[in-house]
Amino acid sequence: MRKNITPCCFGLMIAAVSAASPYLMGNSINLYLIQDSSYIGMISTACLIIILTPILRLLANIHIQKISSKTRLILKNNLITHLSTNNPSIKRNNGEIIDLIDGDVDSSLYLNHGIFFDISLNSSLIILSLLITAYYYPLMTLAPLSGIVYALIAFYITHKSSDILYAKYVTENTKIIGTICNFLAQSKFYSDKTRIDIKNIERLAFRSRLKSSILESLSGTCYVLAIGVLLLTVIHALSQNMMSTGAIFASAIYVERVLNPTTALISIYFSNREAFYRRKRINAHEL
């Protein structure tokens, strides 16, 4: 867990930088409208921050790749030792062992480190964006909050359908790899049944990914509700003369700054169902 402290810190820094730019841009608009020349310095700072964001992301990705490569080596070595020495009663052919070692470790590697960076980044960005929006005008938080509630309701309704989405595909894929390795070891061509099994697994993988994408996209429709609430809130704020032009501009951007990480967090759940299942198989070996 200590290895994940640095990715989490990168996530917090990038979230802070991403949340600062709309605030600076909104203030620069207000300064420009009142003919204050200091808007140039503020908008320049915002531009520098926007440039800094991808640089920080690059550094974070490099660090995550470095620690992930070490974790991959450790897990594979532990699995090789475990499968070859601790389970003599369980008969597995070489193909199944290859998929357990390579397939499970590589497919679930994101869950060891990358997921901590993404969760810290998106969660921090949601909180900071809501706080800044509330600072401008508390009522403006209704738009992003309504989108969050809608996305969470859609997620709650659909997430159970994805719990075993990849279980059959991963299990059957492991078996077919074992069968193929047996044919190769015996220098034989694949049987017709094996070819049919391979095509069936390809269809199963496609259906699993398609269903996962559809379930994930349902939460993404929260933007429609949030934009509608945003328009109503802006109309109300303008009628009461309670917000400046820059504040409205920044608040509109913060709606996206809240909803994009919200849908990203939901996407982590749906797009990594195979990784979660393979991680469960690794954990079954108590490594």
Fold and architecture overview:
The longest helix has 47 residues, at 39-85. It is built from 10 helices and no strands. The mean pLDDT is 83. The chain has a single domain (2-283), classed as ABC transporter transmembrane region fold, CATH 1.20.1560. Helices cover 82% and strands 0% of the residues. By secondary structure, the protein is mainly alpha-helical. Helix 2 (39-85) packs antiparallel against helix 3 and helix 6 packs antiparallel against helix 7.
Chart the SSEs and their pairings:
Blueprint: H1 5-33, H2 39-85, H3 94-108, H4 114-136, H5 142-158, H6 167-185, H7 192-220, H8 222-239, H9 245-271, H10 273-283
Helix pairs in contact: 1-2, 1-4, 1-9, 2-3, 3-6, 3-10, 4-9, 5-7, 5-8, 5-9, 6-7, 7-9, 8-9
Q: How many strands, which pairing sense, and closed or not: the largest β-sheet?
A: none
Quick one: CATH class?
Mainly Alpha
**Overall pLDDT metric:** 83
The outline comes out as: elongated
- Enumerate how many helices there are, as a single number: 10
The number of E-state strands comes to 0
Alpha carbon gyration radius = 25 Å
Which CATH architecture is right?
Up-down Bundle
The helix content is over 70%
Return residue spans where pLDDT drops below 50 for at least 5 consecutive residues: none
Strand content range: under 5%
Q: Name the CATH superfamily classification.
A: ABC transporter type 1, transmembrane domain
Order of helices and strands: HHHHHHHHHH
CATH topology: ABC transporter transmembrane region fold
Short description:
The protein is mostly helical. 82% of the residues lie in helices and 0% in strands. The longest helix is centred in the first third of the chain and has 47 residues, at 39-85.
